[in-house]
Each structure stands twice: as structure tokens, then as C-alpha cells.
Amino acid sequence: MNVFAWMNDQLLRMQWLSELVTSRVQAVGLDPASRIGGSVQFFVYDVIKIFILLSVLIFAISYVQSYFPPERTRRILGGRSGIGANILGALLGTITPFCSCSSIPLFIGFTAAGLPLGVTFSFLISSPLVDMASVILLASIFSWPIALAYVGVGLLVAVIGGTIIGKLGMEDQVAGFVRNVPVTDAEETLTRAERVVFARDQVMEIVRKVWPYVLIGVGIGAAIHNWVPAETIGALLGQDKWWAVPVATLVGIPMYADIFGTLPIAEALVGKGVGLGTVLAFMMAVTALSLPSLILLKRVVKLPLLATFTGVVTVGILIIGFAFNALTTWFI
Q1: Backbone angles phi, psi at 163, to 5 degrees
Q2: Is the separation of the CB atoms in 253 and 289 below 8 Å?
Q3: From CA 249, how far away is CA 36, in angstroms rounded?
Q4: What is the pLDDT of residue 91?
Q5: Which terminus of the chain, N or C, has fewer Cβ atoms within 10 Å?
Q6: CB 63 within 8 A of CB 195
Q7: Where are the transmembrane segments (predicted)?
């Protein structure tokens, strides 16, 4: 246990980095306990930590992902039905791209290949909401129980949401052109060296996409952590406020980011006393229901199906938010 605790503190939380940044902040004449010094320390430490973890995790996960191209994923899911297929679709979503917009082309391919609509939606919900990197990053900022709980409830939303959509029989609500998209069964076999190159390229591509959101998220987190009084945050989003979870969900929907951009904000909010359920609701709304992804999804599904998808996921997020606020003491 001592070895695990040391690894968690030094490799994930990077306490050595926190101490190094704190000493550098002091060296330039800033007090880390002051608002300005604390903001600089929070920003520099979180940015460096997130990008180090992000690069390592994306490389490792992308290497594994190279064994699961869309063609193989379609074959794994093809011919399956029922709750088991939804669970498998949600699990496969955890090793695919990191934002909802990049998941939609795969959703189109799965639908064109004839996969059940409910299974494709379980995949579509899970892919941006839960990924293997999120487990490590959440653990690095909060704790392993919180990280595992987030992944568990994310998969639960994906499985239940996809199951409900599948039971409603809304196949006719998919845009006609999606069914006519050509599907190839060709699967490229990569050598080990090619998989390394693929993983490296994925690191470069994803970091290039997410770095602005990480900087914005860390900046907002630093501002909340050091400049916004806890009393103000508590008055708006305190655990005793019934509206905290719905407000956090509504605030998250217009944003476009992924879990990497929302984590610093979530860290700062929890530090100010905001309920864990409220923070999780915000993160899930940003990643699963961002407005840009809904606009893109509207191009491939009709309005009734889009409204059903949005409603089912929103209700799931609200239930999870209220439940986690009631059970916060189990995790913190």
C-alpha cells in the first residue's frame, strides 16, 4: 500500500512537480499563498501535469486502439443484440476518440453497417464521456474512488441510454444518406513499428486539438481557486441548493471541450465546496451534450431522435448528479 501511495502521489499527482513549481514561483518573488502567486502556481503546475499525463496516456491508449479499427469494432458488435450488445458498445467506446464530434463519423459507419441503433448510441454516448485516460487523470486530481465512480456511472448512462433508444424503435429517424454510406471490410494489419508511429501521430493530433481547451480550463480553474470567494460559489452551487445540479448541467451544454479541459475547473469547484455530483454533472454535460456535437449530430439524425437522445442523457446526468451529492461522504 505504501508503494501504491507513493506511485499515486509522485507519478499521478506529481507532488515533485508541485514542489518544483512552488519553489520557482517563490524564486521570482511571488508568494504561493497570495492570490497572484497561487494562481500562477495552480496554472503552471496543472498545465505541465495535464500535458505530461495526456501525452503518455494517449500514446499508450492509441497503441491499444490500433488493434481496434472501425472494421474490427463493427465485426465485434455485428450480430449482437440486447443489453449485452449495449454493454459491449459502451465498453468499446472507451478506447475510441476523445470528443463527441470525432465519434460521430464512427457512429455513421456503424449505422451504415446495420448495427442496432441502440448499440450505436451506447457507443456514441460512451466514447466522449468515458475513456481510459479519464480514469488516470481523474485519479491524479481527485482520488481513485472518484475516478472509478465516474467511469462506472458514465458507462451506466451509455448502456441505459442506448437501451432506451433501442427499445423505442426509432430507426426511421436516421437520415437517409447514412444508410447509403459505403462500408468497407478492409482491415489494415500494422507492424509494431507502424503502431508506434500511429500512437505518436495520435498524441500530436489530439494535443494539437485540445491544448486551447486545456489552457482555458486551467485558467478558469485558477481564477475560481484563487479569486472567487467560497461563499459566492456556495451561494450559487452549494450542496444545499437544489438547483445546483440542473444549473451545472445547463452551463455545461453550450461549452465545447473534453474531459481534459473540464478537469481543472472541476478541481477548483470541488475545492470551493461544490458537491461532487454537481461537478460530475457539469463534466458529463460538457463531454456528452456539447452544443457543437448536437449540431453535428442533427445532420445525421432527425429531430425526434435528437431530442430523445438529449432528453435521455440529460435525465441520466441529473439523476447521477443528485445521487452523488447525496453520497459525497462515500468518496471524499
Answers
A1: -65, -45
A2: yes
A3: 30
A4: 82
A5: N
A6: yes
A7: 42-64, 85-115, 135-160, 210-230, 242-261, 273-297, 303-327
* Dihedral over alpha carbons 285, 286, 291, 294 (to 10 degrees): -60
Average pLDDT over residues 227-231: 74
pLDDT band at 332 (very low <50, low <70, confident <90, very high): low
- Nine cell digits for residue 245: 445540479
Biggest CA–CA distance in the chain, Å, is 65
Q: Please state, in angstroms and rounded to a whole number, the distance separating the CA atoms of residues 109 and 115.
A: 9
DSSP 16-76: HHHHHHHHHHHHTT--TTSHHHHHHHHHHHHHHHHHHHHHHHHHHHHHHHTT--HHHHHHH
Residue with cell 452549494: 238
Q: Contact at 8 Å (CB) between 245 and 318?
A: yes
Res 302 pLDDT > 90: no
Would the pTM of this model clear 0.85, i.e. be above it?
Answer: no
- Euclidean distance between the first and final Cα of the chain, in Å? 19
